[in-house]
Amino acid sequence: xxKSELRSKYKNLRKEFSFNEIMDDSLAIAxxxxxxxxxxxxxxxxxxxxxxxxxxxxxxxxxxxxGKDKEVVVSKSDFETRKMTHYLxxxxxxxxxxxxxxxxxxxxxxxxxxxxxxxxxxxxxxxxKGNRVGYGKGFYDQFLNECRTDVIKIGLxxxxxxxxISDVSEHDVRLDYCITPFGVIQF
Length: 187
Known about the structure:
- It holds the Pfam family 5-FTHF_cyc-lig.
- This is 5-formyltetrahydrofolate cyclo-ligase.
- The protein is of the alpha/beta class and 187 residues long.
- It has helices spanning 3-15, 19-33, 59-67, 139-146, and strands spanning 43-45, 71-78, 83-88, 95-97, 103-105, 118-121, 125-126, 132-133, 152-156, 177-180, 183-186.
- It has one domain: 3-Layer(aba) Sandwich (Rossmann fold), CATH 3.40.50.
- The strands form three sheets. It has a seven-stranded mixed sheet with strand order 3-2-1-6-9-10-11, with helices on both faces. The protein has a two-stranded antiparallel sheet with strand order 4-5. A two-stranded antiparallel ribbon has the order 7-8.
């Protein structure tokens, strides 16, 4: 299937999810993250979910990261340049939901991309090779291309992988892992 077909399919599948299903699956995903070989790292980039899109709720994962004394980094998106600026998430960080429904830091302590060691990546779909489909704006592919070469890229999904995505481009960045409510998939 093409990216466009997969976007449509998975947006429709997620529309059917109840609040309780989202919370149960998000908790299972966070718990499976405990089995990843990432806990010796310090700087973790985490997306804050777009509730209207029924994205994986990362609150449980945030609690795990805080419990392990990790530095959590969140981003603010510039829709004109398609760039993301990264900020340390602290108790004092003020968040605001932008016009696209994305919770973002208002300001704070900026974190350079080369400090980030692990990135939890939002997605709509992915395939058995680790290719992902997002919303099509290219924010994460651009961000991941700016990261250090050894950054660990982890997708979070409610679903199993598709066999393949037919229109993968050379600019698409593959995942290292995807976590589902059913377990860990390594690519």
